[in-house]
Design brief:
424 residues; alpha+beta; six-stranded mixed beta sheet; 8 helices
């Protein structure tokens, strides 16, 4: 379906004369109330690219009134022969929402540049009868992205963490990301302090007040779940409205190959054990042990995928350091068995480097942040970046407040046995 067909079908459902008809149930007013104020903005910011993959991409944008819409996509910058992807449908019904719209672009080609734009359709309707009364449309600017999986990809990547909506950290970090111009940008958890209601997540991810509006409209964000994303009564059930999940048993996990580097992103859950008496971390709601243990099989399975098993370099990314919870120690054993060279974490708000030893194959880097000067310079926000040079992986840690390189690491490719996916 193209946009014209979508709008024609949409218009056919409009109530005659553009008036919401009376309904029999009058004991309470419609809720949420119909919006019919032309002063309300239709869109609220630029789209954000999230949950990228080799053959798909998530597009999410904020709106200011009840709306639906979609994304048009083309391989041509003039949007010739554009295809339409309507907003996410749940059980057959296209989404209508007053704050967030999202689309999952599917069946894309790996390593391909696509051009896209959102279009947003304003709705005013009685939510009890679903009679529509009005329509207006806004077309977004054209942006572009490149899907993962290009055969000639450089594998350049950046990792930031624990930004916590900090007005000093965010501009510095994303300026450094833009300067490095990576193919992969990983946001390693705790972007949000705690989404007690949806607007917290909208401001933190879709419309950050300290970043330019299109900060992630042309550079996808690979979001890794942190513990603070789970704080708040709204987060438990609705965070996927802002951060689109992928399909599968562990929807926040993701393993993918970009150039010579395989990335394995794990969901490290909460920061307290299930039986910890502390209320911090929503103690009565914690049930992470089974969830984290079940990820062990998922992790093993990734090394059975040829593109992961054969990668010269493998990096694991998880928000909480692996050794911070006894449930996660088996993750480290699995990673060592397959010769993973580096694990990148955050959470502690102090940058740190722990080299591999005789018990494991991987070094550990922990990013700093988010408040400049907190805990001395070790608490400054850091950007971890990496790239392949002369067949080796070079990784650096930069203090973005002082522009100082804190650490540089160099890795040789995994051995032939490790690349063969050694298994039990």
């Amino acid at each position: 379906m193209d946009r014209r067909g979508f709008l024609k079908a949409f218009s056919a459902a409009l109530a005659t004369g553009g008036v919401i008809p009376a309904v029999a149930r009058t004991e309470r007013p419609p809720w949420p109330p119909p919006v019919d104020d032309p002063e309300d903005p239709l869109t609220d910011g630029e789209p954000v690219l999230l949950a990228p993959d080799a053959t798909s991409m998530g597009v999410v944008w904020a709106v200011g009134t009840w709306a639906t819409g979609g994304v048009e996509i083309s391989e041509s910058p003039d949007m010739a022969d554009a295809r339409l992807f309507p907003c996410h449908a749940y059980q057959g019904r296209v989404t209508v929402d007053d704050r967030v719209l999202s689309v999952r672009l599917e069946n894309l080609k790996p390593g391909t540049r696509y051009y896209y734009r959102t279009f947003t359709v304003r709705c005013a309707f009685d939510p009890r009868s679903y009679n529509l009364s009005k329509i207006a449309e806004a077309e977004g600017s054209v942006h572009s992205f490149v899907t993962y999986g290009a055969e000639n990809a450089s594998g350049r990547f950046t990792v930031l963490n624990d930004t916590h909506e900090n007005k000093d950290a965010l501009p510095r970090l994303f300026a450094a990301v833009e300067k490095f111009d990576p193919e992969v940008t990983l946001w390693n958890g705790d972007a949000i302090n705690g989404p007690e209601w949806r607007e917290c997540a909208v401001k933190a991810i879709l419309n950050p007040p300290y970043l330019k509006a299109d900060y992630a409209s042309d550079r996808p964000l690979e979001f890794v779940m942190g513990n603070h994303e789970r704080f708040g009564s709204w987060a438990a059930s609705h965070l996927d409205e802002i951060l689109p999940r992928r399909t599968g048993a562990f929807e926040w996990n993701h393993a993918f190959r970009q150039g010579d580097i395989a990335f394995i992103c794990l969901d490290s859950g909460g920061d307290k054990s299930d039986d910890d008496p502390e209320k911090n971390g929503y103690g009565p709601l914690r049930d992470y042990t089974a969830y984290l243990t079940a990820q062990e099989k998922w992790l093993e399975d990734q090394f059975r995928r040829p593109e992961i098993a054969s990668a010269p370099f493998v990096i694991a990314v998880c928000h909480i350091p692996i050794d911070r919870n006894h449930v996660r120690t088996k993750w480290g054993e699995i990673l060592s068995r397959h010769g993973v060279q580096l694990v990148i974490s955050g959470h502690t708000h102090k940058w740190a480097y722990t080299p591999k030893d005789g018990s494991r194959s991987w070094d550990e880097l922990v990013g700093g942040g988010p408040r400049p000067g907190k805990a001395g310079s070790r608490g400054n926000p850091t950007l971890i970046r990496g790239e392949i040079a002369d067949g080796r992986l070079a990784v650096t840690v930069e203090d973005v407040c002082n522009g100082v390189e804190l650490k540089r690491l160099d890795y040789a490719p995994r051995t032939a046995a490790q690349r063969g996916g050694e298994r039990d």
